[in-house]
Design brief:
The protein is mainly alpha-helical and 142 residues long. It is 82% helix and 0% strand.
Amino acid sequence: MAENENPTGLQTHLSSEMARDLGWILEFSGIFARVSFIACICSVIVASLIGAPHILYSYHLSHFAVLYLLALTVLAAFPDWSILKTFWALVAFVTALGVARILIRHHVEINFLDWIADLSGILGGLAPVVVQRLREVQVRGR
């Protein structure tokens, strides 16, 4: 009998069973990620146009935190998107919201500072993924 052969077939059975379980978990997590993304987008739109409660001490820190979470939900909901596509989609989203807030509230300076905090949150959310991909490229280059 060759060294790689398995006479009991136990490993093959466990692998196919684990693969079936993993497939179900991955499918559920993908659905959950997209539902979370939709909920996050809706809450950001409502909070942006109607007004949000101040949960954190700093108003701009709230903007940072919300867009940080939104960036993470976009990465989870759309794993096939590139980092740049995710970044530009979120920049377009927060810019459109900023323009809408300016048209509704007419506070250009405050909305500009909010936009800067939003961009910081997006970059903060995407940064760990960029660092991980750079590390993978560095390891492959060795």
